[in-house]
Amino acid sequence: MIYKAEVRIQLKPGVMDAEGETVQRSFRLLGFSVRSVNSVRVYVIELDANSEDDARAKAVDMCKRLLANPVIQDYFIKIEGG
Amino acid sequence: MIYKAEVRIQLKPGVMDAEGETVQRSFRLLGFSVRSVNSVRVYVIELDANSEDDARAKAVDMCKRLLANPVIQDYFIKIEGG
């Protein structure tokens, strides 16, 4: 069956978010009153799996082996469909 | 008041997603059975606004002026807090 995994990868608290800071600086230059900007990367993945649990296990494996850097990033997975 | 805007920026349907395709190719090399991968960029922005509508209007303005390229990207905004 085909499942849709939405994988959300964000920097751990305390890790410098260079992209977020750059965006925040640009907002200030444009006159926006902004307290903070955090950048998050999301991958929407259609994958084959036998069950929702199987799809989740595969998505976790994808994060560990390719998508996320466990030293500086956290990942969150949402599974849909089946 | 401080509102949290979650701005989701993704490529319009039909626009080539180079990052998604690269990730998909890497998954195949690792042995994952994957139908498609779409990359999405999310910015979580804490901003000052007078109301939820005001926060939304500001986030739309931020997308138009800085975050999104309207030719190839769609944006979706979710407002929280206040």
What would you say this structure looks like, in words?
Two copies of one chain form a homodimer. In chain A, strands 2-1-3 form a three-stranded antiparallel beta sheet. The model of chain A has no long low-confidence stretch (mean pLDDT about 95). Chain A is elongated. Chain A is built from two helices and three strands. The first copy, chain A, is of the alpha+beta class. The first copy, chain A, has a single domain, classed as Phosphoribosylformylglycinamidine synthase subunit PurS (Mth169, Chain: A, 2-Layer Sandwich).
Ordered list of secondary-structure elements with their pairings:
The structure is a homodimer of 82-residue chains.
Chain A: E1 2-11, H1 18-29, E2 34-48, H2 52-67, E3 73-81
Antiparallel strand pairs in A: 1-2, 1-3
H and E string of chain A = EHEHE
Q: What do the pLDDT scores of chain A average to?
A: 97
The assembly state of the depicted protein chains is homodimer
Q: Please give the domain count of chain A.
A: 1
Rg of chain A to the nearest angstrom? 16 Å
Strand percentage of chain A lies at 35-45%
List how many beta strands of chain A DSSP finds: 3
| Neighbour order of strands in the largest sheet of chain A | 2-1-3
The two chains with the largest interface, and their residue counts, are: A-B, 30 and 30 residues
Low-confidence stretches of chain A: none
Question: What would the keywords be for this entry?
Answer:
Mth169, Chain: A, three-stranded antiparallel β-sheet, 34% helix, elongated, homodimer, 82 residues, 3 strands, 41% strand, alpha+beta
